[in-house]
Amino acid sequence: MISALTAAAIARLFGSPHCIEGVAHGGLAQRAGPDDWRENLTRSVSYMAANRDRVGQEPAAWLADAVADSFTVDRDHPSWDRNKLAVLDTYQFLAEQMTQSQKDNGFVANSELTLNELRYFDPGDPNFMGRCRDLARRLVDFAEQGMGYRDGHDFASAVDLFIAAFKGGDRRFCEVALTLNTVIACPGLIS
């Protein structure tokens, strides 16, 4: 037996006026059922089918069967959150090294951007190591802002970690933010 709460949720999702009416009167409408919300359910399945290349999680089995095609699960990196100071500092600082098209991709997409895709990254340039040192010093200084360091780190050890990251270039933005949060005593969520 379907509960009134479940019926109300289904009614709101798929827009069945019969189901809403039945719930509003203290019970389930006798005629409420799949035929009552077929049109909206069909639209919902069509939308999911059209956007199957970027769903946030594995679809329900019934939806996968209804679409009869594969879905691409595309989740945001769990540590890439606008409410984390280390993430905001990383993104704000590294934005100066991004091209306009990279900036246009937006915050979420850029969590996967790697350092070697930024403008500074040119290992063949004789000034490359100097640039890496400068970026590392400025990032640590920018992010620390009197918060202190974690686990025995200090300015010099933090800078050394980021020099290596900038030189290697294979770190994603989300990994840089995680490293920043590991060495600098950033607060948790800032929302």
Approximate strand percentage:
under 5%
Number of helices: 9
pLDDT < 50 runs, ≥5 residues: 19-31
Helical coverage, percent range = 40-55%
List keywords for this structure.
mainly alpha, 191 residues, elongated, single chain
Can you walk through the features of this model?
This protein is an all-alpha fold and 191 residues long. It has two domains: 64 residues, no CATH class; 99 residues, no CATH class. Helices cover 51% and strands 0% of the residues. Helix 7 packs across helix 8. 23% of the residues are buried.
Record the SSE blueprint.
Blueprint: H1 4-14, H2 17-24, H3 38-50, H4 61-67, H5 85-94, H6 100-105, H7 128-144, H8 155-168, H9 173-183
Task: Produce a short descriptive summary.
The protein is mostly helical and 191 residues long. Helix content is 51%, strand content 0%. The protein has nine helices and no strands.
